[in-house]
């Protein structure tokens, strides 16, 4: 089923479906009309004889060099070839697919001056699952994601490499196999494809979508840990959170209450428990996880706006003028990516402290050391907790802001840059680490609850323990647990675990 795109009105839910799905896409008719109008405006401007940046001039520091009309197509082809200077491993297919779709949306705003044939080719490539090979490094997030988007454009002109239905080959072979034809770029079209924040935005959106999924999953692992530790549900009372008023905190507490409702473990020690308060990793979970959810929501609003934006240069404006500006500067994306990174790090940090609590007999209220059935002879989850600490520490370092960095490029013409692309790209590693931390917490909490038998947890949490046991057996004897951690981490990344509750 083809997904119709209306640039300027595409929400986060639709963007996540586009990221996780494989359906073909198409711009709506109104967008095609705007694209055609802007192309006619650009062609008319070319006949005036005036210099138009990047259309009949050189680029960046070479903007003062005028290009003859009969060389404008060569100018665009040279631009694409020279700027395809990326480095490193290829970006994952779903990210590349989202880059193509975001470029399609941006050009569909009708402010870029490209012909309808350019957006039609992007649609065809998405529909055929023909994805450019784009190296992951090379953008500083300033005059657009130049190097990554140049590799995208290189494929569109039939050069470079592409992946067709999972197989890497030359772009020309991929086009032939898909029954498509590369495009010969006209005036400004190479620049319109290269300028823009689509690589940074695609990476940031992917980081956001996966972080939201894992943050929600952490509410489940947290509830499991609360019950395993015989923690109190009193700190989740709705009035406490209403008195503060933060939406994410209120929602997090509500989910924790619902998950724990009906637990025999909790009911067994309401009376006579000598503990007055639980450690912060249990008691303050709604405040911390809720703040992270709020942070992700704010970043989502920024990225939704950016995904719908025209971010190349110059832009064809509604009054017919063609004006150079700076919409390609990815500062909003860099800030959003840094904020997502902070949230990922904090969700993992408080989860890791819950793991540490569960394996420590001084804190776990009667559970054996390291959750081992025979501590001493058996080490249980001793080193699994260490692994979670290593992942937490790595995420703390990765959470350091990238947006405050800058370095002059292009002979000082581009003298302040955002670093948005690698700010967003590091979110992939951070989410991977977070899934590992939550996997260890799921193992530990499920083990702890089972050690409370014959007392039973809530029906909702029992359901989640059943799901955990599909990927990880109880730890009756010491064994290699790296396979269990990996299996649970993959399950957490691939599923909306909170919805399954």
UniProtKB/TrEMBL annotation:
Cytoplasm as UniProt keyword: yes
Modifications after synthesis and translation: Contains an active site 4-methylidene-imidazol-5-one (MIO), which is formed autocatalytically by cyclization and dehydration of residues Ala-Ser-Gly.
Subcellular compartments: Cytoplasm
Alphabetical list of InterPro entries matching this protein: Aromatic_Lyase, Fumarase/histidase_N, HutH, L-Aspartase-like, Phe/His_NH3-lyase_AS
Recorded metabolic or biological pathway in which this protein acts: Amino-acid degradation; L-histidine degradation into L-glutamate; N-formimidoyl-L-glutamate from L-histidine: step 1/3
Catalyzed reaction equations: L-histidine = trans-urocanate + NH4(+)
Location of 2,3-didehydroalanine (Ser) modifications: 143
Top-level taxon of the source organism: Bacteria
Top enzyme class: lyase
Gene3D superfamilies for this protein: Fumarase/aspartase (Central domain), Fumarase/aspartase (N-terminal domain)
EC number(s) recorded for this UniProt protein: 4.3.1.3
Keywords: Cytoplasm, Histidine metabolism, Lyase
5-imidazolinone (Ala-Gly) crosslink, residue number(s): 142-144
Family: Belongs to the PAL/histidase family.
Protein name, per record: Histidine ammonia-lyase
Phylogenetic placement of the source organism: Bacteria, Pseudomonadati, Pseudomonadota, Alphaproteobacteria, Maricaulales
